[in-house]
Amino acid sequence: MAAAAAATHFLRVSTRSVRVSTSQGRAAPLLFSTLSSSSPSESSLPSFSAVKSAIESESDPVKIAQIFESSSSFPHFRRHRPLFHYSVRKLARSNRLDLVDQILNKTLQSSPPSQLTSEGFWLRFVMLYSEAGMLDNALQVFDKMSQNNSPLTEKSLCAVLSVYLDNKIYDDKFHQIFASFPQKYGVSPGVKSYNLVLKAFCQAKDVDSARALLDKMENEASVVPDIDSYNILLDAYLGNGNKSGFDGMVKEIVNKGLEPNLTTYNHRILRLCKNKECARAKKLLDEMISKGVEPNSASYNAIIFGFCKVGDLESAKNVLNKMVGDGYASPPSFAYYTLMRHMVEEGEFDAALEMCKEILRRKWIPPFEAMGGLVNGLVKISKAEEAKEVVEVMKKRLRGTAVDSWGKIEATLPL
After folding, report:
1. pTM of the full predicted structure?
2. What is the pLDDT of residues 147-184, one digit of tens each?
3. If we measure between CA atoms, which residue out of 158, 159, 154 comes closest to residue 187?
4. Which residues contact 267 (CB under 8 A, 6 or more apart)?
């Protein structure tokens, strides 16, 4: 069936009645009251980069909306998706959903007719409203698109399902939409939309239904699960501590000849580290690299933390050094903080001091509780001067409330 005006209103949302409330309690303008092409006002800012900087630095939501609206004449601005998302997030965090509606509505109204026949263009706005937590508005945009003779594909089904997932709605309404969409819009679900249903089951803590759906996909729906399908179940089994379910899923991946990706390896590494099998996790890290799967910081962090938890700080440090040497991921502060904390807890104060110096060299602030323990430990081993030295370096980096927070800890230290 063609997805167009013949389709009934999928979401039963009236385009004449949906409003959003402002933080002052006023009703915002009607969404899609018109779709006339109104000329945007010219921006007073000289370039797109100036507009981007102005939005990033501005804290007043009204001014953010004004900058956004007055700058839509820049072609690069309209194509710059990250800035749209950033602007919407800033306004939503300020609880100015009326302004989110205002800027998105005006952008749609001023869009050329050629864009209004693009499925991808409409879905951008669906997801922007969803990101702001404006569920009804997101669905209303989809409803309007379905009446606008825009050809629909599985991307539309995925977008609508994602709106519900983003807003933590995993109930019968979600599953009814998945079941009714093909008949209403002539769009058959593929593996991507099935994977979203798997996520919904898992996020609702109904892993058994997710497992059953995985079997149904191939046996009844003629949709072959991909590695992402299995990763969703691996994540769920990892989260609920079902080791046998997790290990069974890994065997199934191997038996089906699927190529593990970064997510697969990271889940397996975390599973081994949780089971205190850190040496095996390290071997798995080596394996993924040898097979051309580049690790990220999470791959290394899990093993560093795992070795620290079992008291093998030397191996943890070796993995950190490997992360630095491999160059696949920039070592995050988390890895250094983890090692410093555990070195202090294990009484390895000389090693903790070197780690503290490396943290300061990288222009980070050491965790205060570990810093306090380090100072006490250094004083006990007659290294009070070294303790004073790193404390003074750290204090020069502190700003705002951190100064007072550290001052309270420092007052209790034997310096």
Report:
1. 0.82
2. 877 789 999 999 999 999 999 999 999 999 999 999 99
3. 154
4. 231, 234, 235, 238, 246
